[in-house]
Amino acid sequence: MGLMLAMARFIPRANELMHAGKWEKKSLQGTELRGKTLGIVGLGKIGMEVARRARVFEMEIVAHDPFVSAAIAKDNGIRLATLDEVYAASDYLTLHVGLTPQTQNMINAESVKKMKRGVRLVNCARGELIDEGALAAALREGQVGGAALDVFTKEPLKDSPFQKLDNVILTPHIAGSTNEAQEAVGHQIALQVKEYLKHGVIQNAVNVPSVSHEEYLTLKPYIVLAEKLGSFLAQIGGSSLEEISISYSGHITEWKTELIRNAAIKGILNVAVEEKANLVNAASLASSRGLTIKEERKPKASTGGAGSVLTISTRSHKEKHVVKGAVLRENTPRLLHVDGIDAEAPLEQNLIYMRNQDVPGVIGKVGTILGKHGINIANFSLGRHGGEEQAGVPRQAIAVVQVDGIVPEAVVSELRGIPAVQQAKAIRLD
């Protein structure tokens, strides 16, 4: 914002003239930001904050970011557009993207031709986003009316074509150099260390999209849900996995879901994989093991009254299993669905999972066996397959029993001995 104002009102040149003893008001007549169109490339945390401040100056805002929903943009008074549309509409253009093969030299001779004549460019992101030779030529020709640059391809800046141009403001990479920013950085680092030591969450890792502390607090219940749901799925399913699919529905679709994805993969892999996965390496570890990871977003939640539902499925060459879960009742992770059967159950500590025929007497026999072995039932959740019942063919049902304490294998074996029970497994969710 400071650089835009400096360009609009010729503040650096005014200061230079005054120090030289010159009073030249006529040559310093500038323009207002009000009513101008600000193009923003990249609506991450910084890009969004720039947009909010620009609105106060009554600027029109057009932006390009393929990972921001239309609803979020609309709420912030931003019109989403293609990159070429942003170039064509902007009076001021500011860059807020990371350096990737796709963004390197994105400001070049061809892209400059797509811009309004006289456009003013601000770059406080990465110097490599700009082909400096092409921009210098456009500044000399007047296609670009001005530029304010805080970052450069090579720093410190030496022998640059920009140093001889009077329509360029140059600053030595000081966008984050304030006392308040340095204090905030120290505070953020302390929070990151705390979150890692307490919860094992590494924020701002180079291979995981960054989340703020506030964003992490919002994501945390779903990270817990994903890991427990993944662990539950791995313990009821088979081995030789080939594919893990994760589907998000509801308002969670608008969030940064990489940590949720990695938590689900972590929960699945850590049941059996010797090299333990964590929230940073889970996806790469799965890839190294030849697992295909698929993700899907569905804006509308499809199960019950949950605002957001997480669906995880695993597939091998023999079978496929699907579970759904949600965060309910004061951030408590809950199981909602297993392999086509709805059944709400807590995802906590010690569970017994059973698949059985829906016939009388199963619940009583389960209770009798557990009671005989001194195992207390904390929660007993039942569900059966929907649809019409076929004559003489019992419906398929499941039971998820939360118990106090670890269930010995001998007890699980006895549960399997109930004639109607087809599968019984002890599940441990740490």
Shape: elongated
Summarize model confidence as the mean pLDDT.
89
Helix run count: 13
Low-pLDDT runs: none
Instruction: Kindly state the percentage of residues in helix.
Output: 25-40%
The first-to-last residue Cα distance is 48 Å
- The Rg value, from CA coordinates, equals 29 Å
Describe the structure concisely.
The protein is α/β, with parallel strands linked by helices and 430 residues long.
Overview of the molecule:
This protein has 430 residues and is an alpha/beta fold. It is 33% helix and 27% strand. The protein contains 13 helices and 17 strands. It has helices at residues 2-9, 11-19, 45-56, 70-75, 83-89, 109-113, 132-141, 179-199, 213-236, 258-269, 282-288, 362-372, 409-416, and strands at 37-41, 60-64, 79-80, 92-95, 119-123, 144-149, 168-170, 241-250, 292-298, 308-316, 320-328, 332-338, 341-346, 349-357, 376-384, 396-404, 421-429. It has a 7-stranded parallel beta sheet, with helices on both faces. A 6-stranded mixed beta sheet has the order 9-8-10-11-12-13, with helices on one face. Strands 15-16-14-17 form a 4-stranded antiparallel beta sheet, sandwiched between helices. α7 (132-141) links the parallel β5 and β6. α9 (213-236) runs parallel beside α10. The radius of gyration is 29 Å and the shape is elongated. The two termini are 48 Å apart.
